[in-house]
Known about the structure:
13 helices; alpha/beta; Aspartate Aminotransferase, domain 2
Amino acid sequence: MTIDFLNLKRVNAPHDAAIRVAIDRVLQSGWYVLGDETSAFEREFADYCGVAHCIGVANGLDALHLILRAYGIGAGDEVIVPSNTFIATWLAVSQAGARVVPVEPDERTCNIDPKLIEAAITPRTRAIMPEHLYGQPADMEPINAIARRHGVRVIEDAAQAHGARYRGRRAGSLGDGGAITTNDHALAATLRKLRNYGSSVKYGHDMAGVNSRLDEMQSAVLRVKLRHLDAENARRAAVAAAYTEALGHTPLELPHVLEGAEPVWHLYVVRAANRAALQAHLNAKGIGTLVHYPTACHRQQAYANEAWPALPIAERLQDRVLSLPMAPYLDASDIEAVTASVLEHFS
């Protein structure tokens, strides 16, 4: 039996007919950028997240970068980021011209540790940028409290956590972040200009913007997918619960969920002392796995010229984390095959 780490055809198969209708609607409209589909998706996703505004841009990296620009964060400023994250979080800060200040994670959750943030704040700190890694909400209450005490912004990187909740509120509604979601009216107005060459009126350019616009085709498909997001996240949660129950007595370190958090299980990431052996065993059994992420950001060549503080937790995680198959289509037989193969390795 072969189980892919992720099969996007299987993910989208239940929505195939609706997606084709949505795509045809765009083709019939003849409008491909910043049209009715994008406006509708922005309204629907803002409502879903419980915020006033959603601004669609080309990708998550652009979303973070443009928020920083809209807040005037750049050269001479510092932004606190997780040491353990996908590199886009760091790249957004670098693209804005600001300085990356990494803070180590809580090793249980793999998310930035609020207890370590305050020591990293300096007079140049302008923002804290937590990521909801693997779909697990970061501990936002103490992060927001620290930000209020020091007068700095909180910008959420919610790219892996659409639909996740922290103490009843959606990820992306707890600071600024996501696709972009915000309750800040002035920020939203600036971002709508920045994503479109700095323009709010055709051929009138108020600032040096960029071309980062969510196109009509993607917006139409996202509108279809959004209607099923909660149901698919619930199915992911059921898969995660089954994994946790089956693997609870193995030597693996399993995901830890904060009190009051409702993760969406973008990934189910375990930690193994001998990851290579476990991954090789699962591969031999036809079980696909991936490593998120094999090289910590400060060890990447892109940041080799910087002098970084010791970041032992990020380095330990890079050597131990392993992502098991995770998708809403996984059924009982798939879950049994994955867990049985893991248990066999440790038997």
